Amino acid sequence: MPDIGIFNALSDFIELRMKSCRVTAYGSDWIEHKAHADYDLWFVEAGSVKIEIAGTEYRAGAGDVVFFYPQIPYKAASGEDGCRFIYVHFDYGIGGQQRILSDFRLSGIIKRELLQEEVALFGKSYNQSDAMNNKPGTRLYLKACLTAVIAKIIALHGQGQYTGTFLNGKKTKKSERNLDILQPIFQYVYDHLHQSMKMSELAALAGISEKYFISYFKKAVGITPGQYIYHIKMNQARDYLYQKKYSIQQISGLLGYPDPFTFSKAFKKYYNVPPSKFE
Questions:
Q1: pTM
Q2: CATH of 6-169, one of 2.60.120.280, 3.40.1380.10, 3.30.43.10, 3.40.50.150
Q3: CA 179 to mean position of chain CA atoms
């Protein structure tokens, strides 16, 4: 599986679009056959939900969160006492890649003990938003709470505390991109920030022709390899400046710039202030 660290490395490019958010309740006779067009989270508040995907049945109870990926057919039914849950349709992407989560095994049922604090905060923010009829600020706060929930799921996966079981990581359709192929490039960039990098070298690492490499990278990651390298260098420059251990001249060398002027120009373009005035 691809390295979950890409979400930290490219956090500035992450975009969350919350399309709809509603609470719904069903009796014990509810059954649904569906496949969502977007990512979907169900926050189960009461009762229980039975979910069947690819012939395997799962059960979510109060406090659990169900995470669906787009275009995955499922059958859902309420438990003996019915069910009530908040559902959220959303997109989550990096740059132009709006399906970045699908490269990781996150789709499944996250048990309440793993997300208890984040779920409580999200439920409270939803009730406030609903009661205040989406007054200014409430929708934004709800989105922030949803961001916290997704960030925690990603963190749990990265720490080995949660792995989604829906489809056991299998995909129903052949993907036009594969983030796994680019893993050697991500590591190579980190290891060679002190020198210039040629597209031909990176393409060779991925086993892709140079002509196809840039478009493949952008399709998989959401940004071009040049943008990726620039972003990683600026992140590292920021960290070096915070450490207060290196001069601007030293940092320019550590990041592969030919001189401090070129580095400072690149830094100012990114952060809107020169490195000498960065705080």
A1: 0.85
A2: 2.60.120.280
A3: 13
